[in-house]
Design brief:
The chain folds into three domains: 150-344, no CATH class; 357-705, Alkaline Phosphatase, subunit A; 716-797, Sandwich (Immunoglobulin-like). Helix content is 48%, strand content 12%. The relative contact order is 0.08.
Length: 800
């Protein structure tokens, strides 16, 4: 079969070495530029002139010759790209100059209106452009239509440019999931939208070196659309969009999704995934192959080298930034793709400027030298109990709130009679472990990359200093309690590395009931868990407890189920969700009261500090609260040693452990001392960054931080007393102690499901193989979430 000239050329080029093909393509492109640059220069000059005029109309124009020059010129990039996209259609028309003039006028009109300059300015500019359009229109009539040999090329450019533009629009619509909100933001902030289009187009240029170009584009589009939908699902529940660092929390995210998403969301995800698989297979078979062109690769590599600078620079100019406190609002303003990539580049912990071993040594020496040890008449405290109140908020914060009765009478009693105050917390609506991190370590989440989760990215693998470790050095036994799954955010490993001696998680608690429809126990069980810890220890205890009952999601309940009559501002759905929250609040307040009643009755000298980790997401749409106010929560205290009520204080959460030490006369660890010594120093945050980097990156995994005595559970004895086999019923009956619903039987390293009867009895049913003499048997408590071995009894050897 004879080959065409084109096929022969392609075959010969494929046989040439890659480097030679690349150099030849560079020469060809260079020749093309030399041939047509005289025709291109006037167009380039025109684009720049129009973009500069549009920029001069804005507030940016006032900075063109100020101290921010020439950085402000970076804003020309999105303006140029905006103008190019808007006028591109004119190059596929027979009336190129006419449409270009009119569309340029629309561009100046659009940007002028957004800049809020005098209407006379942008109307005059539009009239001038319209005048040019009339001139070219009559010139075409007089001279006839001019043939454009490049129209076919511009048609391809037009098709792919608008394909990427529509993809970017789809990404924004899916991410914001609200066209009424998304479209106006795009129209009123075209610079940022075009920056997103440029990024999507720039990254997606690789499709032009793929043989199945349309298929490659479809896969690329599917990636961004799915990622934006995942982000929507995430911020709908925890008020934070998806970030690159979420790959470290993917297990937690998937597990949480199945618990908090509606069945409609889950069904939609399944439909999308099934449709995607079917579509990809069908599209892959039908997609036409396109011959590889080395010139496309050269152009793409050139764009990859040139585009990042202007894109990053334009986005970094302060006047293009928003100052929203919520990250999801920043994503809405700046666009999903730009924001996702921007925060991806900020995902790693970097050594702060001015850091050195010598500086750290001097800083630590200065802290120890300047710190004044606590002295005075402080009462002896045997037990220190800290309770982190999950998603707690005083319901009186709801605008227009009035209640038939006080939903939290006991907490209000504590507020009136004991020291209380407010704290700035690092999160809103979720991400509890970040608040835990700030209290336990005294370190600052704002000094870490946005989206960074210390528990699953650092502390699960590294031992470090903490408030728990400090109290352990004073003779207190540190115990963590959480009525939720122990593996969530790797708490079962994190608490060990932070110096806790014991961790009581949901899986280790016998005879407890889960909250209906949820995967955690009500907070009413915490009194017994705390009592068990205090009764088990001869000396003093430090008990760090994390509640969970007030966690979202907040169900829409029927009015007949409302716990009381009340009024708040908002629609019926909002009121129904708040009603559900109020019902949980009343139970929660009773749970806290039961803990304090027990401590009062026990009579040991005790100090209790309680603080809320974040507000519930019910407050997100409360317009009467500023964004900063939505990151402010309450703390409460109680004691039975006669400490006087102090004046209310407003603190940062990372200062709260230091304030606790101040109230009961403790010096604290290095971080606590630093906060006291440097808190009013003008260079406080500079030194804070240095110290935090040292504590997280250098002062880790020391021999003194080893924690071999750490136990999960560890208070209730966990053992097998006897194992009997009923051959007729084929059941194994195991008698012992410390059994829970998450207890399994292990025989010769094989794990068997066991039916939980009570704390002392479990049964393995349908056990077909009789036990043999010498079998090695133990019981294990296995994590409910990921199946980690949390606790194992001593083995027994079966003797028949």
């Amino acid at each position: 079969m004879l080959k065409t000239k084109k096929e022969n050329t392609e075959e010969n080029s494929e046989k040439q070495p890659f480097g030679l093909q690349f150099m030849q393509s560079c020469k060809e492109l260079n020749n093309i530029v030399k041939k047509y640059y005289k025709k291109l220069l006037p167009w380039i000059a025109t684009y720049f002139a129009i973009a500069i005029v549009s920029l001069l109309m804005t507030e940016y124009g006032n900075n063109m010759l100020s101290s921010s020059f020439p950085k402000t010129l970076l804003l020309l990039f999105p303006r140029l790209f905006f103008l190019f996209v808007l006028t591109l259609t004119s190059f596929i028309s027979d009336k190129k100059y006419v449409y270009f003039s009119l569309l340029s006028g629309v561009f100046l009109l659009w940007t002028g209106i957004l800049a809020k300059v005098s209407p006379a300015i942008y109307i005059s500019l539009f009239i001038i452009c319209a005048g040019f359009a009339l001139y070219f229109h009559y010139r075409n009539k007089r001279n006839g239509m001019e043939h454009d040999p490049y129209k076919a090329i511009f048609k391809r450019i037009h098709f792919w440019t608008f394909s990427f533009l529509l993809l970017t629009l789809a990404i924004e619509l899916v991410h914001q999931f609200n066209p009424i909100r998304a479209i106006p933001r795009i129209v009123t902030n075209p610079d940022m939208f075009m920056l997103n289009v440029a990024i999507v187009m720039g990254i997606g240029m690789f499709v032009f070196i793929c043989k199945k170009r349309n298929f490659a584009f479809a896969m690329y589009a599917a990636f961004w659309v799915i990622l934006s939908y995942i982000s929507y699902l995430k911020y709908s529940n925890v008020n934070e969009p998806v970030l690159l660092l979420d790959v470290f929390q993917i297990n937690e995210g998937v597990a949480a999704a199945f618990k908090v998403l509606d069945w409609i969301d889950l069904a939609l995800i399944v439909v999308i995934l099934v449709g995607l698989v079917i579509g990809i297979r069908a599209f892959s078979k039908k997609a036409k192959k396109v011959a590889f062109d080395m010139k496309n690769l050269v152009i793409i590599l050139l764009l990859y080298a040139l585009l990042p600078g202007p894109i990053i620079g334009a986005g970094s100019v302060g006047s293009m930034k928003t100052h929203e406190r919520f990250l999801k609002d920043i994503f809405f303003h700046d666009g999903f793709v730009y924001s996702f990539i921007n925060y991806s580049f900020k995902s790693s912990i970097t050594e702060p400027k001015g850091y050195s071993d010598e500086i750290i040594d001097d800083l630590i020496e200065s802290i120890n030298k300047q710190h004044n040890s606590k002295s005075g008449d402080y009462p002896e405290i045997k037990n220190i109990i800290v309770i982190q109140l999950e998603s707690f908020a005083d319901p009186n914060l709801f605008p227009g709130a009035s209640f038939e009765r006080d939903p939290i009478p006991f907490l209000h009693y504590l507020e009136e009679n004991f020291t209380t105050g407010t704290i700035d917390v690092p999160v809103f609506g979720g991400q509890t472990v970040k608040s835990e991190f700030e209290f336990i370590t005294g370190l600052n989440m704002n000094l870490l990359p946005y989206g960074y989760s210390p528990y699953v990215q650092h502390i699960d693998k590294n031992t470090m200093d903490s408030f728990a470790r400090y109290l352990n050095s004073l003779g207190y036994t540190p115990t963590a309690i959480h009525n939720y799954q122990g593996e969530f955010f790797s708490r079962h490993e994190v608490y060990k590395n932070l110096g806790f001696r014991r961790f009581l998680c949901y899986e280790t608690m016998p005879d407890i009931e889960k909250r209906p429809g949820a995967i955690w126990a009500n907070d009413s069980i915490l009194k017994d868990q705390i009592a068990m810890v205090l009764d088990d220890t001869e000396g003093g205890d430090f008990v760090y407890t994390v509640t969970v009952q007030l966690h979202s999601k907040y169900l829409v309940i029927d009015e007949s189920e409302f716990p009381m009559e009340f009024e708040i501002d908002g629609d019926d759905e909002k009121k129904a969700r708040v009603a559900y929250y109020l019902g949980q609040l009343e139970e929660f307040d009773d749970a806290i009261k039961s803990i304090i009643d027990y401590l009062e009755k026990k009579g040991e000298p005790t100090f209790v500090l309680m603080y809320s980790d974040h507000l519930p997401n019910l407050f997100y749409d409360v317009e009467e609260m500023s964004q900063d106010d939505k990151f402010v929560t309450k703390f409460y205290t109680w004691n039975n040693v006669g400490l006087e009520k102090l004046q209310d204080r407003h603190l940062e959460l990372y200062h709260l452990s230091t304030y606790l030490c101040d109230m009961i006369g403790l010096d604290g660890n290095l971080v606590n001392k630093f906060h006291r010594v440097y808190n009013n120093d003008p260079e406080y945050f500079h030194y804070y960054k240095l110290l935090q980097y040292y504590l997280m990156q250098e002062d880790i995994n020391k021999d003194e931080y080893e924690n071999d005595d750490y136990e999960i559970g560890g208070i209730i004895p966990f053992y097998i007393d006897s194992v009997t086999y009923d051959e007729e019923k084929r059941t194994l009956t195991v008698i012992g102690d410390g059994f829970t619903e998450n207890t399994f039987l292990c025989i010769n390293d094989k794990v068997y499901d066991a039916e939980y009867i009570n704390q002392s009895l479990i049964v393995v049913r349908d056990f077909r193989k009789p036990l043999a003499e010498g079998d090695i048997i133990s019981v294990q408590i296995i994590g409910e979430k990921y199946g980690a071995l949390l606790r194992e009894s001593e083995v027994i050897v079966y003797r028949g």
